[in-house]
């Protein structure tokens, strides 16, 4: 997209509020490139094509990720992955992946406008997620390198532990509800939104 | 009486330096920090706290914990009111206000106590027998009277100002109860590094140790508790939850805990969360829930001043209350002798211990005798006497064959401590589906063989000594950690010495010297006023199952759930039926262990957070421009955009006229969108939709109808072909998720051979519909790189280009019958494109419109809305959409067309309706009849499915499903309405504008 385009993230309208003492600190990584990948794990050409374009191994172990630089591949299912990359790369990556996967039973779909990446940090990041998410988020059970699709209250989401918090991929239409829910649940810890 | 006249000068765990003022039944009292309302009232000499449920007999505190059946109070008023709070569990706070429930006009003088005089006339089942006839009297008279007479507390009617939360938690070991066994288990498990949650319902952890006079490792028990808690606090993976009741043990080691966060604070000091519901998944569970003491059953055993012996020790030792001046202890076991000793040590005159056993020689009886306490052995208390407080007891000898005999002796007393043995608190074990096992030796039900990953330890497992509780707790905690894959050993058991005890003598009901049916009432279930005579009556009347007896007599009902009375009740039933206790069995223990507030269960699932409100990328624009919103599924969609001074009718008329005469635009982003790729994509659509897809040209779009297997319409929408093996399907807004699931289900379970990939792109694409004769001029300006000429961009075609500089897919389709384009762009750029369309359309007065106008426009053309004009019982043929069904080839639903009921030609069919009076708009849902004056039941011919005022037609229009409707064109039907009006309307074809389709053919 051209420079002139004004973009609005799903969390447009929420005010930044940096507070030093907040137990929950939210940061949106807006406008990332999100590509949904479907392919055959049993076909070695699939992983090879992905590696050729991204330089990333496809995570075949359920609920794991592989990362390099600003690109992360998330395992979503036995034949489904999500690629999150830096902004403004979706069209290029989509074309390159399509080309590399040509002839395979595979698909590449740009869904960059449909979801956004949110990071939750702070001393109570895990506590606030636990209020709505039934997964065991303890680092012993859910550590760096893993990911899981779950929900926060009634909002579907994709979770990934970070070294100092959690990354959440949330659908655009649910992001308003997600934000309101986190803001409410974080009341007792103090809540801050940073850029 | 002076403040806290019955407070002991020393001892106890209350803080005498912090007095707390409170009000009970309008009178002000003072207690101490650390008191419960029960202990504070007892410290003020108040024993009469309640009136019983049915007979309105005076009742006092009998227990010291969750098992209290009598002392139910109405706590606070207005929005903070809590009905039926147990005085034994309410922590005292400044300015607390409580009152008795179930007493009118007052607990001291209760007019309903007259019921007690008629007790013999209102036995168990009285209501069922007496209030049966006449039927109409039930709701009007009987129920009203019974409710007023029998109610407990009053639920608050005001909005609850408290905040409640829920949270999920996972642990390796959940320990329930922080008495000696639970603390030991938590220590042993916690030291391994396992994630441990220790929950206890009390404010202070320690359970029975807080009132104990025993030593552990040579130190007072309470000091061992402090040390244990201090160590637990150093273990980072151990979470200690006081004031937290584990109230439910569900499947897969899922347990629920209600944690009370601020009920112990003065009202004005309460903030944040009142309660938190913990939803816990535990790898292992250690139940250390203790035991409840059983009452003994004899005449007038419910008088205030009759208390469980263990509770007597608790009030004496832990709360420093002098419960009476002259006490009698009546027990069938050794443990209550400790209460006699505790009373004696506190300076209370212990008149006697009455024991049905002959010459008890256990260590505690010997110690009591050594302290100079008189023991009346081989005897029982046959009756208590007194009014609002016990004043004495009648004691008789017990013969070898279990009868009472000899001369009665009367003892004066103002306190009677009773103990009938102990019942392990097996509620959670039982909830986990372990079947309780009766132990003759211990005369109680013990937890059954675990069904889930749990173990019971300490008193709840029938191990009543301190040594067994500590040793069992340590072993169970260590083993639970090991089973959760932590390496650890069993710590050494601290040194304790338990007194040597002699066996108890099971005594389910004290034999009565009175003739059957005479004598004073002996209560089994205090809360529900169930006596021995009621259970015997139930047995005589044929109630043999304990479950039936429970429901007939109300035994074990209410907030009490049989904690005190059930075992005695079962034993009395067993005796009446001449069978054993295990043959009689227990009733089922169900969650909740104690009552849980609705607020806790609701948590934050309230208001805006109750259900997701899904918003489109353009939501902010709609808000800024005054849109009224409509809920469509979870989405908020603009309904209409009123200008200043406009009502909905005026706004919708304006929007409708703009769309047909100028240009209008709508946010259609909520439509479900599914990206479909793969070499079998076209064949897949062939099977999913009723029409043919293989020959659809690339860059072209087609409308599709989706059916369920039963041949009924399920969803519809337009699908475009982007490439040979690449399609994008649109679905209805509300149907998006279920259509996606439906497609995946067929692919994964029925057609796994098909090479098709599906991806939801609903949220990625923002869709802007530009509608009306001027729409071509507007979109041409917004998308300069697309040729919108009639020839280059025909109806049902797709073109890719840019819109306001943003990559766009533009489809020429129409849900209004007008020339119309839908611009699809990445939702992040939706606002920019929408603004550009608005700007390009300004000179044509481009008009945003909402769902109401969309509905009117499509109804003017007779286009269906799935879910409005269909209801799961409508076929394509019923809608006159046979044209959408291919002649050959299979698809989901086709086979059902040959069902006789689906194939018949006189089904309800979709037709148009024009009211005789063009100004009358039929209500949707109105039923249609041939003759409005026919007698009821008047045969119904069909119903109105869609109905609007059409500004474009200058009259009302409607669509209806009418039996055999296609053949009834021109017939007039009638809609009798709820307000008495009858609206006449004539059946017509459901196309009211441009039947030849000229508008979009431009």
From TrEMBL, chain A:
A GO BP entry is: sarcosine catabolic process
Instruction: Provide the GO MF annotations for this entry.
Output: sarcosine oxidase activity
List, alphabetically, the InterPro entries matched. Answer: SoxG, SoxG_het, TrmE/GcvT-like
**Pfam families associated with the record:** SoxG (PF04268)
Put simply, this protein is called Heterotetrameric sarcosine oxidase gamma subunit
| Species name | Plasticicumulans acidivorans
UniProtKB/TrEMBL annotation, chain B:
Pfam families of this UniProt entry? Fer2_4, GCV_T, GCV_T_C, Pyr_redox_2, SO_alpha_A3
List, in alphabetical order, the Gene Ontology terms for molecular function in this entry: sarcosine oxidase activity; transaminase activity
Single Gene Ontology BP term? tetrahydrofolate metabolic process
Q: Which domain of life is it from?
A: Bacteria
> What are the entry keywords?
Aminotransferase, Oxidoreductase, Transferase
GCVT N-terminal domain span: 618-887
Q: Which residues form the Aminomethyltransferase C-terminal domain?
A: 908-994
Name all SoxA A3 domain ranges: 520-604
Residues annotated as domain FAD/NAD(P)-binding: 172-429
Q: Which NCBIfam families match?
A: soxA (TIGR01372)
Family recorded in the similarity comment? Belongs to the GcvT family.
**What name goes with this protein?**
Heterotetrameric sarcosine oxidase alpha subunit
């Amino acid at each position: 997209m051209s420079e002139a385009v004004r973009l609005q993230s799903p969390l447009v309208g929420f005010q930044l509020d940096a507070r030093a003492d907040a137990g929950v600190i939210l940061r949106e990584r807006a406008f990332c490139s999100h590509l949904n990948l479907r392919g055959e794990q049993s076909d070695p050409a699939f992983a090879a094509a992905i590696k050729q374009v991204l330089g990333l191994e496809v995570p075949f172990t359920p609920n794991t990720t592989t990362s390099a630089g600003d690109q992360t591949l998330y395992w979503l299912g036995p034949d489904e992955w999500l690629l999150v990359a830096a902004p403004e790369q979706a069209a290029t990556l989509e074309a390159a992946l399509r080309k590399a996967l040509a002839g395979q039973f595979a698909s590449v779909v740009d869904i960059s406008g449909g979801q956004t990446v949110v990071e939750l940090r702070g001393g109570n990041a895990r506590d606030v997620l636990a209020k709505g998410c039934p997964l065991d988020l303890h680092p012993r059970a859910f550590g760096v390198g893993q990911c899981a699709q779950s929900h926060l209250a009634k909002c579907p989401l994709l979770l990934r532990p970070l070294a100092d918090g959690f990354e959440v991929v949330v659908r655009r239409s649910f992001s308003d509800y997600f934000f309101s829910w986190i803001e409410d649940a974080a009341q007792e810890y103090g809540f801050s939104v940073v850029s | 009486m002076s403040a806290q006249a019955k407070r002991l000068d020393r001892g106890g765990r209350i803080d005498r330096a912090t007095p707390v003022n409170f009000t009970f039944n309008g009178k002000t009292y003072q207690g101490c920090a650390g008191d419960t309302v029960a202990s504070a009232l007892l410290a003020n000499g108040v024993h009469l706290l309640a009136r019983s449920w049915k007979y309105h007999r005076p009742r006092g505190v009998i227990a010291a914990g969750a098992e209290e059946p009598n002392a139910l109070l109405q706590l606070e008023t207005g929005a903070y009111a809590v009905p039926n709070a147990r005085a034994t569990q309410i922590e005292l706070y400044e300015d607390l206000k409580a009152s008795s429930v179930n007493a009118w006009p007052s607990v001291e003088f209760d007019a309903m106590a007259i019921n007690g005089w008629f007790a013999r006339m209102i036995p168990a089942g009285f209501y069922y027998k007496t209030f049966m006839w006449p039927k109409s009297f039930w709701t009007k008279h009987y129920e009203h009277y019974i409710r007023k007479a029998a109610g407990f507390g009053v639920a608050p009617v005001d909005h609850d100002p408290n905040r409640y939360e829920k949270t999920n938690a996972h642990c390796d070991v959940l320990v329930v109860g922080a008495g000696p066994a639970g603390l030991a288990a938590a220590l042993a498990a916690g030291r391994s590094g396992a994630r441990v949650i220790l929950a206890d319902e009390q404010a202070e952890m320690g359970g029975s140790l807080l009132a104990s006079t025993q030593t552990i490792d040579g130190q007072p028990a309470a000091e061992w508790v402090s040390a244990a808690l201090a160590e637990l606090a150093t273990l980072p993976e151990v979470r200690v939850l006081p004031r937290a009741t584990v109230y439910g043990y569900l499947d897969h080691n899922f347990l629920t805990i209600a944690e009370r966060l601020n009920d112990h604070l003065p009202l004005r000091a309460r903030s944040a969360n009142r309660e938190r519901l913990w939803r816990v998944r535990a790898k292992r569970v250690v139940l250390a829930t203790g035991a409840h003491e059983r009452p003994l059953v004899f005449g007038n055993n419910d008088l205030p001043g009759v208390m469980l012996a263990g509770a007597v020790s608790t009030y004496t030792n832990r709360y420093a209350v002098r419960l009476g001046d002259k006490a009698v202890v009546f027990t069938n076991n050794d443990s209550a002798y400790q209460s006699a000793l505790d009373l004696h040590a506190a300076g209370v005159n212990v008149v006697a211990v009455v024991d049905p056993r002959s010459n008890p020689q256990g260590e505690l009886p010997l110690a009591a005798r050594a302290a100079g306490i008189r023991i009346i052995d081989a005897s029982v208390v046959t009756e208590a006497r007194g009014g609002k407080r016990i004043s004495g007891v009648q004691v008789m000898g017990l013969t070898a064959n279990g009868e009472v005999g000899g001369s009665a002796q009367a003892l004066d007393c103002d306190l009677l401590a009773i103990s009938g043995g102990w019942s392990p608190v097996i509620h959670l074990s039982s909830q986990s589906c372990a079947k309780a096992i009766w132990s003759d030796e211990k005369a109680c039900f013990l937890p059954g063989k675990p069904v889930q990953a749990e173990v019971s330890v300490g008193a709840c497992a029938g191990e009543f000594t301190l040594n067994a509780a500590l040793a069992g707790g340590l072993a169970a905690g260590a083993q639970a950690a090991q089973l959760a894959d932590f390496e650890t050993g069993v710590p050494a058991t601290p040194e304790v010495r338990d007194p040597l005890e002699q066996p108890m003598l099971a005594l389910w009901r004290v034999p009565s010297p009175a003739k059957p049916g005479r004598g004073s009432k002996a209560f089994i279930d205090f809360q529900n006023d169930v006596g021995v005579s009621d259970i015997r009556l139930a047995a005589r009347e044929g109630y043999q199952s304990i479950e039936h007896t429970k429901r007939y007599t109300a035994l074990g009902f209410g907030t009490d759930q049989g904690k005190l009375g059930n075992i005695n009740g079962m034993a009395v039933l067993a005796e009446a039926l001449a069978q054993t206790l295990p043959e009689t069995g227990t009733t089922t223990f169900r969650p909740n262990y104690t009552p849980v507030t609705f607020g806790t269960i609701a948590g934050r699932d309230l208001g805006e957070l109750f259900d997701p409100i899904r918003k489109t990328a353009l939501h902010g624009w709609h808000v800024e421009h005054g849109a009224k919103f409509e809920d469509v599924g979870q989405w908020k969609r603009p309904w209409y955009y009123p200008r200043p001074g406009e009502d909905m009718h005026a706004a919708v008329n304006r929007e409708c006229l703009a769309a047909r005469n100028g240009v209008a635009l709508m946010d259609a982003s909520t439509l479900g969108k599914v990206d479909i790729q793969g070499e079998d994509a076209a064949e897949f659509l062939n099977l999913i939709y009723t029409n043919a897809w293989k020959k659809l040209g690339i860059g072209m779009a087609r409308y599709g109808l989706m059916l369920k297997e039963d041949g009924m319409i399920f969803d519809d929408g337009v699908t475009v072909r982007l490439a040979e093996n690449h399609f994008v399907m649109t679905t209805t807004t509300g149907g998006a998720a279920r259509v996606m699931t439906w497609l995946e289900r067929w692919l994964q379970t029925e057609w796994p051979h098909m090479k098709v990939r599906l991806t939801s792109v609903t949220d990625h694409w923002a869709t802007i519909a530009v509608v009306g004769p001027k729409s071509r001029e507007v979109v041409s300006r917004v998308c300069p790189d697309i040729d919108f000429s009639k020839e280059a961009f025909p109806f049902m075609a797709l073109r890719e280009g840019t819109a306001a500089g943003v990559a766009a897919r533009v489809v020429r389709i129409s849900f209004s019958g007008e020339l119309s384009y839908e611009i699809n762009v990445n939702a992040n750029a939706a606002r920019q494109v929408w603004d550009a369309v608005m700007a390009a359309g300004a000179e044509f007065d481009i008009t945003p419109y909402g769902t109401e106008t969309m509905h009117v426009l499509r109804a003017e053309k007779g286009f269906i809305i799935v879910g409005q004009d269909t209801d799961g019982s409508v076929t394509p043929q019923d809608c006159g959409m046979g044209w959408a069904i291919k002649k050959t080839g299979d698809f989901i639903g086709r086979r059902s067309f040959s069902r006789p009921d689906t194939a018949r030609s006189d089904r309800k069919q979709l037709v148009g309706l024009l009211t005789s009076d063009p100004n009358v708009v039929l209500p949707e849902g109105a039923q249609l009849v041939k003759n409005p004056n026919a007698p009821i039941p008047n045969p119904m011919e069909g119903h109105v499915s869609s109905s609007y005022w059409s500004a474009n037609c200058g009259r009302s229009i409607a669509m209806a499903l009418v039996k055999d409707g296609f053949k009834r064109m021109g017939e007039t039907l009638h809609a009798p309405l709820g307000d008495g009006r009858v609206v006449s309307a004539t059946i017509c074809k459901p196309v009211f504008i441009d039947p030849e389709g000229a508008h979009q053919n431009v």
